[in-house]
């Protein structure tokens, strides 16, 4: 046993065979003085793992705007050419930008505005309509942003007068514009009609999730010549998400294994295409590994023996996020899409629940993976009549858009509306969890049989 202790001590603390102390006559190994290293020895000490690279990775994985936009070049060019064309011509126009959450709509538009400001002079106003208490308060917000005193009533007339003067052109961005719902959609109509006023120099951008908001909610815009240009942001593909993650992690690649990045991109693209969820999943996975690393203590050479704990190089003890850890985090992140709790159940209206039921029932009856929108409308209509819930054709189309934005279904577009294909993005058990009502789903399945 003493000889074994001697060999271990020799292996850890000495690189010189001759410098190892000989055992005493009594067989005991004399204790080596810690402050007097033997010639050629490398002294070790306990140290905490270096987590600076994890912290750097977490900072780069935040969904902030001040980062390089990877991809979306086509959309950026379309927005840029649209804006420059009207600014240079002194004309007015409007554009409606649609797309599911996390597809880069606001980020791309913000980047275009920053670039165009360097070459063109205009006033810019950005309003997030989610922050407004009422739809009508948008008028006061616009006037305040343009530096026009807000006095009494007549706010809309004041806006019209401001954009009709001979000053600088005005660019108005309305994010989450679908929140400006009002009686007869008077507020939305008044805003999208601003570019059509005589002498107007306003360029209006509206941003929302719904693909058909202007056609469904504002059908009279086309009749009066106020229909905006339309631009749709499709969900990110697997390759696009992987490229975005790789760009964010380019200075700390060692933190996340490439296979884990690929796995994350594939799962997110299959579910929602929301790059913010991919960034969130990677950040959580890094936090998971960082906590585990902080709990460990390592034997490392002392600084005077050549080890620099602050070195930017990857220390041999750095643990990277692997596929198993990424899968565990994705189960939580994507759980918020369907199985993530009761918040979704609480905010999912009855009509959307019924459409989900109609889709499940139709797919089971036909034993198919997707169904045409026309067939889904018929099944949805039958279920609504059974449940005594009024509906119409346009209602079904808008519900599909809303459910797609939540990542619950996928709609494959077609020139002819009825031939669009609709498929579930979640399995039937997740549908039951979302509904929190097995009886409702069972009744709908019976109605469809």
Automatic annotation (TrEMBL):
Pfam families tied to this protein: AAA_22, Cdc6-ORC-like_ATPase_lid, WHD_Cdc6
Keyword Cell cycle attributed: yes
Keywords, in A-Z order: Cell cycle, Cell division, DNA replication, Nucleus
Spans annotated as Disordered: 1-36
GO molecular function: ATP hydrolysis activity; DNA replication origin binding
SMART domains attached to this UniProt entry: Cdc6_C
Domain of life of the source: Eukaryota
Biological-process GO terms, alphabetical: cell division; DNA replication initiation; mitotic DNA replication checkpoint signaling
GO cellular component entries: nucleus
Subcellular location: Nucleus
Family per similarity comment: Belongs to the CDC6/cdc18 family.
Protein name as annotated: Putative pre-initiation complex subunit cdc6 aaa+ superfamily atpase
Originating species: Ixodes ricinus (Common tick)
